[in-house]
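SEQUENCE-TO-STRUCTURE ENTRY
===========================
Question of interest: how does this chain fold, as expressed in backbone structure tokens?
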Amino acid sequence: MNVKTVLILLILALATIFALVCVLLTRGRAPSTCQHQPPEQEDTDDGQSLVFADLTPEEMVQVVRYLQGNLGVQLVDASRAKPSDNCIASVDVQVPAKAEVLRFLDGGGARPPREALAVLYFGNQPEPNVTEYVVGPLPTPVYHRDVTVQKYGGKVPYHRRPVTGKEYMDINTLIQRELRKAPRFLAACCESDSTDLAILTTAPRGFKSGDRATWFVLFNNVAGTGYYLSPVGLEVLVEHGDLHVSRWQLRQVFYNGRYFASTGDLEDAFVANLLEVVKIQKLRAEAVLGSMRPRHPPGSPGPLQYEPQGPRYSIRDNRVTFQGWSITFGMNPNSGPRLFDIRYRGERIVYELSLQEALALYGSNCPGGMSTRYLDGSFGIGRFAYELVRGLDCPYTATYVDRHYLAESETPKTNQNSLCIFEHDAALPLRRHFSDSQSFYYGGLRKNMLVIRAISTLINYDYIWDFMFHGSGAVEVRVHATGYISSSFLHGRGTDYGNRVGPHTLGTMHLHHIHYKVDLDVDGQLNSLETQDMGYELVKDPWSKQNTIERPYLRRERLERENDAAFTLNTPMPRYLCFASPKPNKWGHPRSYRIQIASFAGEHLPTSSAMERSISWGRYQLAVTRRKEEEPTSTSIYNQNDPWTPTVAFADFIDNETITNEDLVAWISVGFLHVPHAEDIPNTVTVGNGVGFFLRPYNYFNEDPSVDSPDSIYLSSEQDAGMCGANPLACLPPTAACAPHLPPFRYGGFLNL
């Protein structure tokens, strides 16, 4: 055998050994552990979800151009418009009528024309008013029609319009001018020349229709801190209802429990030594009560949530799909998040799920605090949903979506990254069982869900809006409140209305009430409302007849009319309340979805109140009505500034119509009473301050649909639990090596302020 042959055999032997080693090293290892796995293709939408889509900036621009050229009046940009001008207040999508949409989605009908809803303030008219126009078709409008009378039964009076940023600026100028009439008082009380005081609005603005007089509360303003916790004791009442800014007046002044006709009178009382002044010292930013600056250097990083093989959900345009779920999402600039056409396994469960209103109602012994009933929709729940902070507001690797709006300007604005979508591991089993008798096994499934989230900052409070979709077919809706409490200056019997939380700060009691619209379509549009609850019956035991048993039994009832389905806040309600289809499941029960509310609301405003009808949705923890196209929302942005003659009164929706086999809507109120305390400083925490509701399948399926989840785990005493092929949990060690490629951290949330 020559040397050449030996070398060839040696090389072949080495190659064989190398191949065997590779096989041994890779045996049992899941192939392509870190390879990106795109989600299963569930999307057969073909752009149908765009029938609900929010307007694009380009569409908004086209609507503005059309209105400027076709209304025959001069329009001033709302960012600089005076009350005596005409201006475009806002432009949003006009969602088509449900019947049109369903013909398109389900019946093969034509796509409804795409239209916008434009709100205009006409101050430069003989009879100033607010007018709403539907403009279309988009993207190139050629028509507009006035829908104000159709929607509201008449023109909207001008005094009902929300206050614009320009109006607030003019009010601020007036207040600063008036404060300069009390220089010695301001220097003594606040070490201020007035320019460094923050001015906070209250609402509503008076006591009767037509009033536009607002109490403004003054606070020490230290840059980088929450001024809401530093009241100086000074509040002013400004009358600003006249079309001419020069005629606005400061009507009253409040300081430390006393009322004065003007700042001049306040100054005179101070100079005459007839005023008890509480001196407020200026503090450094880090020492201010509301400072959120870190007090310690960063520690080691906490847990990081990520998807080893990429997201398991898919987003296309305004639609997200995830493990059988399909949801169309959007944002109303006034009322906030709105979802449409929510389907599970191809079947529509909810046509519309939308936030309607957020009420914050305060108590205090100061005029600003005691008169405050904020209806946040009039300020802009969606408009003030700013950019989310990656890794804190939402998981770092979540998908972030921009939202666009046009309000108080002729130019669209973008809140970038202001809505996030992610899969969340709740670190809790969705279901599990360990069997220790007859046979030994374990079965379970992690509680993973898809989350759609936005966060609105409404003056001092931050509301976290969550919509969650579970593998069991359940929908969970939850809101958490955080941010700063609002406060009053502590004087007199202030603690009758809250707790002292600072040297001169009263944390004022208040309630948060939130309202949602849920248009359920359970196995079709026609549903009935069925309730179930328990009772006890005393029976003799059937085997001996000598003893008695208190036997629980089920009370079933079908509610026939709207009045029967209006459940007053904080009163007993059937524990099981379901939207039921006339069609049965495999076991003969109506296919249903159950509404389950988790709330600890405060007391609703007494119905004797002159403004109660404007928030009459708050009377009910749940009200079920027949769906009507002319009852699209439970409130109106115009209710805030004229709650005494509300533009929309929800109580009128409940008129005892039949609700059997009809297209029904559930209107749900959740909320909580908040009595601020020391631990609300600097911010209210989300722990314990979350409320919401569930939509849960109830005999809708023939079994729990999560049994089909590929994430299910089953271990038996007869198998090797460490085998990756048989147990996905055994695959985690190599999977955990798939460190995500994180994008660099960026934040541009201050750009649009």
About this structure: Residues 48-158 form a domain with the Nuclear Transport Factor 2; Chain: A, fold (CATH 3.10.450.40). The longest helix spans residues 3-26. The chain has three domains: 48-158, 165-272, 316-698.
